[in-house]
């Protein structure tokens, strides 16, 4: 499989906003933000980052790949857990500096390394003047210790 090469973003705003060449705008670290939702029900599953290689692999294979900032390396989502993300649609925003992936999740239908369906399983509330976290989705779809051995 040959590597996709992305053209440099145009300085012409209308070229960025029209149909035509996809010219993603990576940040100064070479990353672009990826928002990931369930293709069926629209649930927000995760937010991640992609470098050019991860974005190209995602487009070419139809399986979501990301760049892990904490590990500093390419990451095929679900490779360890079996919860692979099959990409059904890829969108970009008006200035092409963010990606939206609509995916179907295999395996346990869970995206978060905690075993939950979504990485967004907590709400932030103000109690006694202090922001606090509350868990609203405590359903585990898999045991992270069994999957990741942590």
From TrEMBL:
Pfam families: PRA-CH. It is an enzyme of class 3 (hydrolase). Signal peptide: none annotated. Its main location: cytoplasm. Its cofactor is Zn(2+); Mg(2+). Pathway: Amino-acid biosynthesis; L-histidine biosynthesis; L-histidine from 5-phospho-alpha-D-ribose 1-diphosphate: step 3/9. Its EC number is 3.5.4.19. Binds 1 zinc ion per subunit. It is found in: Cytoplasm. It catalyses: 1-(5-phospho-beta-D-ribosyl)-5'-AMP + H2O = 1-(5-phospho-beta-D-ribosyl)-5-[(5-phospho-beta-D-ribosylamino)methylideneamino]imidazole-4-carboxamide. Mg(2+) binds at residues 93, 95, 97. SUPFAM superfamilies: HisI-like. InterPro entries: PRA-CH, PRib_AMP_CycHydrolase_dom, PRib_AMP_CycHydrolase_sf. Homodimer. Belongs to the PRA-CH family. Catalyzes the hydrolysis of the adenine ring of phosphoribosyl-AMP. PANTHER family: HISTIDINE BIOSYNTHESIS BIFUNCTIONAL PROTEIN, HISTIDINE BIOSYNTHESIS BIFUNCTIONAL PROTEIN HIS7. This is Phosphoribosyl-AMP cyclohydrolase. It comes from Rhizobium laguerreae. The lineage of its organism: Bacteria, Pseudomonadati, Pseudomonadota, Alphaproteobacteria, Hyphomicrobiales.
């Amino acid at each position: 499989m040959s590597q996709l090469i992305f053209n440099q973003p145009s300085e012409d705003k209308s070229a960025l906003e029209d149909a035509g060449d996809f010219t993603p705008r990576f940040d100064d670290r070479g990353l672009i933000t990826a928002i990931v939702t369930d293709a069926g029900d629209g649930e927000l599953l995760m937010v991640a980052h992609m470098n050019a290689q991860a974005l190209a692999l995602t487009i070419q294979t139809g399986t979501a790949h990301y760049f892990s900032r904490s590990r500093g390396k390419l990451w095929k989502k679900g490779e360890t857990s079996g919860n692979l993300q099959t990409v059904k649609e890829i969108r970009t925003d008006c200035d092409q500096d963010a990606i939206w992936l609509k995916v179907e999740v295999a395996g346990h239908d869970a995206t978060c390394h905690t075993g939950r369906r979504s990485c967004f399983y907590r709400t932030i509330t103000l109690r006694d003047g202090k922001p606090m976290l509350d868990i609203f989705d405590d359903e585990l779809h898999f045991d992270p210790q069994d999957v990741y051995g942590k």
